[in-house]
Amino acid sequence: MKSQLKVYNTLTRQKEVFKPLHPPRVGMYVCGPTVYGKAHLGHARSAITFDVVFRYLKYLGYQVRYVRNITDVGHLERDADEGEDKIAKQARLEQLEPMEVVRYYTDSYRKDMARLNVLQPSIEPSASGHIIEQIGMIEQIMRAGLAYEVNGSVYFDVEKYNKQGHYGKLSGRMIADLLTGTRALAKQQEKRGPLDFALWKKATPTHIMRWPSPWGEGFPGWHLECSAIGAKYLGQPFDIHGGGIDLLFPHHECEIAQSQVVYHTVPAKYWLHNNLITIDGQKMGKSLGNFITLEQLFQGTHNLLDQAYSPMVLRFFMLQAHYRGTLAFSIEALEAAKRGYLKLINGLRALKKLVYTEDTPTNVDEKVVEQLHRNCDACHDAMNDDFNTAKTIAQLFDLLKRINDLKHGNLEATTLGKEAFERLKNTYKIFVEEILGIKEEPRLSPEALLHTLLKLYREAKEQKQYDRVDAIRAALKGQGIILQDMKTGVDWTYEV
Ligand SMILES: [Zn+2]
Questions:
Q1: In three state form, how does the secondary structure of 363-393 look?
Q2: Is the pTM of this model over 0.90?
Q3: What is the CATH number of domain 294-435?
Q4: Which of 181, 198, 289, 404 counts the highest number of beta carbons within 10 A?
């Protein structure tokens, strides 16, 4: 019997059978980037994790609406309610308009994601494009008596909310513990309680990103955009809410509190969190200054790297670990990932050349066939087990052994029979390309190949092997390239 998809739900702290609210539709919301800097490995892990979730749900036949936002306003320094807006600060540093910063880093993020073969979400809304919806939510929270205005800013009253709800239900924290762990409020703070968070912030006179509101000109608090955007495009509640584990508290906890007040429900049924990347046993993060951007990795320009690593090697590196575990970054691990990736791709290339020619197989080995079916089933079982890509890849390497056996003639296609042979081909191809999203990257440079040919041409000339000289000339002419014997050596030009 085929296994069912089970997902680990942070909200209930257990693996649950995935049952969408309105099958065959699935609504999924994932917290996207704050676009004030180049994307780093942490961004890639979240994007790749939920890209595989998106791909697998579609493979299972669900119609998935995947919403991932762009935070372009309201995210303050240190994820706190004080300090400068991250985008406004970057704009000041780069002497640009905030929207120029947003545009530049949004484009840069999308390019990086495309190189990683991360599919675009169905909708990619920005926080600044949903100010009206966010103001609407604040008004409702105020009407419910769970928010208060101070000097043009509005705050959510966490302690009052907790009397009727449970602030901390997602992270499993109790408000009493949170309160004892919090420092006393500084005198100039506007908040009544230390856990209260901003729904609206008053803009200072120099703040450019500002909108009119019932409380004066300002901008929305960071947590609000996800509640407003999720509800607008996916309804309430929707199926899956995803994000990095660093967003679990307070960001997702605040999202839940806001939606509970306005929509009387937890916004999503399943909460999925990808874990962090570590380096030397420490969390890799922008705030710690030990992060590596994707650009640095792809170009090999970070001082920890002695060479560039391609987007697909990074994708493989991330997928050979389960998304809920921490992932330790090291050069050795990247090197291992590179070898693993190339092995998988060699399998894919070999597979394309394998064809089944025998119509009436006579020598089917039931034992071999049975084992092959078990391997194929295990690929599904691994993905159904909370998207366990690590186990899936291990199964694919088992299938790869059979592919290599077929390629080298150690196994006859007729030993498998047509059905098992086709299942091997389809399973390997679909899991590698469609579900894991791993594709062949061009690794051969035309310049390097041409350079090699010119070297062979010079050698042939020196050795007066004119047959070879003519053959190389003719082969290159076929590609529109004319070799020229110059006094200084061999050159070439495009044929016109
Ligand atoms: Zn969010």
A1: CCCHHHHHHHHHHHHHHHHHHHECCCHHHHH
A2: yes
A3: 1.20.120.640
A4: 198
